[in-house]
């Protein structure tokens, strides 16, 4: 039994080896002690610290006896850390500086924003400077041709501009530019630090420092640091625009009929919003109401089955739409007989209950925002949550919100829980599955000083929210809604209030026998009707494509597609069925 | 009947008419156990049988109506007759009639038979606001006036309903006549009500406003009692540990007697409020719940009013005996000698 000592860069290790052990077996023992022990053929041995050049590879099968190691012998070990897939970078956290190896085996650090495909609106806004032009101000003492600090263009993240115009949060692209300004311009050209880092509050399950995962062990490297909750300065989407008030009216109509709340998926696109510097708006074209069970104080919706989900996705893609948000009602009639509703959500009660915040965060995690400026390729989400409820005057009004990125991270790490008090969120306790770090939030206490308060056991949930504005297109905006208002085809999943989708309903809303083709085309441009037709299977795939093209796209293509559709056999079959039903 | 009336009237005019004096007593003093209550709240009196004989001799017109006059006060009223069962020389009147006439028990009353026109209209004034509590005054009056034969202006007759006595004054009658009375048998009487004595007109606008600010009474969804709340057992979640205190366990008495455990009163389920600690609300991913207890929106002016209206418990300035060192105005005190320029410690005079 010989004891051999090995001195490595990780420290001194002892191996009690039998004489008959091979070097391979000795290294086995060592690798259980040294977490990042490399492949044995890459290890170098040496008797003096300067002379560690002998590779261990040829000696792996020789015994200790043969190698003539004395008892208590000290040997120096060395190995290459950089390069090779067998090194220790298996479970490392992805860094912002991916290492790329070109064909010559030379490693170089590539520092650039992630190569991901963003939404067109994001690409457009990235290309914009976003500075706010100013005219000659009160303090300008120069001629018209000159420019001073009082009339030079403002950066899009300027605080004073934001307060003057009542913008609660700066837009996301303005924030990215601000971060880039502070992090990347000062640095040399070579290195790039991604301005956005996604907060991750989960404990890393395989910590590089080699201890057992939670709950058996923890160290400062894998433990998530203390979280300070703050209002998010920016918001991913600034405005929600409903392309016509009829969309909302039809949605609320279900509540008017049976007094129960309703939920729907907002289908639309993201576009540039010009009222806010570098702003983004979500343009809602239609509301898809999924199958649900409604009550006057709650609702349960069922996830779509395979084919309906596929049909919805296909229709959305063909029309250039995507899910941009979710909308639900929380209306209670005030009993005054004039249609006013009770104001339940206001600054003294709550805006979005903790349950709804968790719900919104889950949906935001499902539809992430692809962003090249983030180290992980995605950052938060553009998904919005809208509530139809009573405002302080008693009128039915819409409020739109998004959950902040740290809120999403809290929900992903399962650190918070909804509570019976809607304005409070409860912090979960640490257990075998999750580790809950300290969470603080800033508050102005009774003495008027801003202090950090521990968020446990519960904290005001509004720290996780940002609010958005909403509106309808004003006369001046050029965008025309994709769908026409005229069609009165009933909305899906409303059988319980008597509005069902069947051939009779189609007959009522679309007049197939008319000679006014323009009118016919208009009445076909209804989201719910298109979805219904795509599920019936009367029209073939090509015919469905033609149908979708009549709704979307340039005017000329729309007309030609429409005429082709009219000629198609499927459409003629459809017309016959309708007219004979 | 009318032709008969005309004939009887003609005949009555031939005879002199009935007129007599009686000692009057309240109905409650009448011997016999017949239902005095009904009689006391009616408009008919008891007369002796001899009166009946006289009246039949005289062939008077029916119904038999009498004018009662108290000679001392000059007050008069009219009434019908219930029964001829009184003792001779006596008549028994309802209590209210005695007070209307202002006559004492045993006083002398002149009773004369008379004729009254059939009434078409009467205006009455309840003497107390309690009359408004009656849900259907029309039906009550119809029932009660069955016991009355006549109504005279300035009568305050009493009726009993639901174990309560209501006084009602007759303000005016139609057709008007010198006797100021009407016969109310077998006639349709139009009734007009004057406001009861002691009635104050309520402020309708205020009432309407008050009723508006309480929709929680009608809507269970606003107090955490809606259908979804029941499904997820929201009220139980909210009320968990209502009696939790930091000091658990029972107490011990030195005397050795057992400490009675307080009965746990079951909490009132009608009003859930958001006091108490928040409890976790765990629902499946696809469920949303809106039925939290309502916190109504208070307009900004209301909160301001509240602040200004809070009367300080102890108004007025305080006084202190000790002269505070920290008084703001230091003009009364000597000026501080802290940082003033001082003359040098030693003044060297050049004596040369």
Automatic annotation (TrEMBL), chain A:
N-terminal signal peptide: none
Keywords: mRNA transport, Protein transport, Translocation, Transport
UniProt cross-references to InterPro entries, sorted A to Z: MPN, Npl4, NPL4_C, NPL4_Zn-bd_put
Domain MPN: 240-379
Principal location: cytoplasm
Coiled coil: none
A Gene Ontology BP annotation from the UniProt entry: mRNA transport
Subcellular location: Cytoplasm, Perinuclear region; Nucleus membrane
PROSITE patterns in the record: MPN (PS50249)
Membrane topology: Peripheral membrane protein
GO molecular function: ubiquitin binding; ubiquitin protein ligase binding
GO CC terms, sorted: nuclear membrane; perinuclear region of cytoplasm
Similarity comment: family membership: Belongs to the NPL4 family.
Name of the protein described by the UniProt record: Nuclear protein localization protein 4
Species of provenance: Komagataella pastoris (Yeast)
Gene that produces this protein: NPL4
Automatic annotation (TrEMBL), chain B:
Chain intervals for the UniProt region annotation (Disordered): 205-225, 299-352
GO-annotated biological processes: ERAD pathway; ubiquitin-dependent protein catabolic process
Matches recorded under Pfam families: UFD1_N1 (PF03152), UFD1_N2 (PF24842)
Source superkingdom: Eukaryota
Gene3D superfamilies attached to this UniProt entry: 3.10.330.10, Ubiquitin fusion degradation protein UFD1, N-terminal domain (2.40.40.50)
GO CC annotation, single: VCP-NPL4-UFD1 AAA ATPase complex
Ubiquitin fusion degradation protein UFD1 N-terminal subdomain domain ranges (all copies): 18-117, 119-196
Range of residues in the leader sequence: none
A GO term for molecular function: polyubiquitin modification-dependent protein binding
Name of the featured protein: Ubiquitin fusion degradation protein 1
Organism: Komagataella pastoris
Classification lineage: Eukaryota, Fungi, Dikarya, Ascomycota, Saccharomycotina
